[in-house]
Design brief:
Helix content is about 30%, strand content about 25%. The protein has helices at about 1-25, 30-35, 95-105, 115-130, and strands spanning about 40-45, 50, 80-85, 85-95, 110, 135-140, 145, 160, 170-175, 180, 185-195. The strands form three sheets. The protein has a five-stranded mixed sheet. The chain has a four-stranded antiparallel sheet with strand order 3-4-11-5, with helices on both faces. With about 200 residues, the chain is an alpha+beta fold. The radius of gyration is 28 Å and the shape is globular.
């Protein structure tokens, strides 16, 4: 509680100083123009009283977003599901790992990676909701484990770690952590797009 009170006082002080600096910099002519722009136009009604004229709100065409909202939010393409700042697609058609990676690439995406328990749990849920127990994800062994989306390998959640001489591709397991398996097996897969590709 004390911390919250202290943060409130500090924030109020910073805002007050910033407001004073803005007022000191703003020229008098700018204030006059702003005041003139903010004048309310009035009209005389039948009784001779002055009433403010109602401004008509700016109408937006269908599908158009208000400028203040544009850029703050994004919507994933149809069939894709949003999680944090990315869009994910569960591809139910069975493909080998390399064909699944090529399919994601054709969709403007990469195969999914996981960097914490929450992200991996999301991939498990996506797979489970589709009625499957496994799905390819973007982990590949090539001189060490790496993600095909070029993100850092900074999290491990192995349930089974088989020899990499035969099992070089990573897959989601809905019952536990991920595992590596033969890349030629045909399984569903998960693609991921970042916000710039959605």
């Amino acid at each position: 509680m004390k911390t919250l009170l202290l943060l409130t006082v500090v924030l109020s002080s910073v805002l007050a100083v910033t407001a004073q600096e803005v007022e000191a910099v703003e020229p008098v002519e700018g204030k006059q123009e702003l005041q003139e722009e903010n004048l309310v136009s009035v009209a005389e009604n039948e009784a001779g009283e002055f009433v403010p004229e109602a401004e008509e709100p700016e109408m937006l065409s269908a599908g158009e977003m208000a400028p203040s909202v544009k850029g703050r939010f994004f919507v994933c393409p149809a069939g894709w599901e949003r999680y944090k700042s990315s869009c994910y697609l569960y591809v139910s058609a069975g493909k080998s790992w390399s064909n699944a990676a090529a399919n994601c690439n054709n969709l403007g995406a990469t195969m999914a990676s996981a960097h914490d328990l929450f992200e991996y749990s999301f991939l498990q849920q996506l797979t489970r909701r589709a009625g499957s127990t496994v799905a390819w994800m973007g982990g590949l062994y090539f001189q060490g484990w790496r993600w095909v989306d070029q993100s850092p390998w900074n999290y491990n959640f192995w349930s089974a770690h088989h020899t990499v001489s035969v099992y070089q591709c990573l897959h989601v397991k809905t019952s536990a952590g991920w595992a590596n398996n033969n890349c030629g097996i045909t399984w569903p897969s998960i693609c991921r797009k970042g916000t710039d590709g959605c």
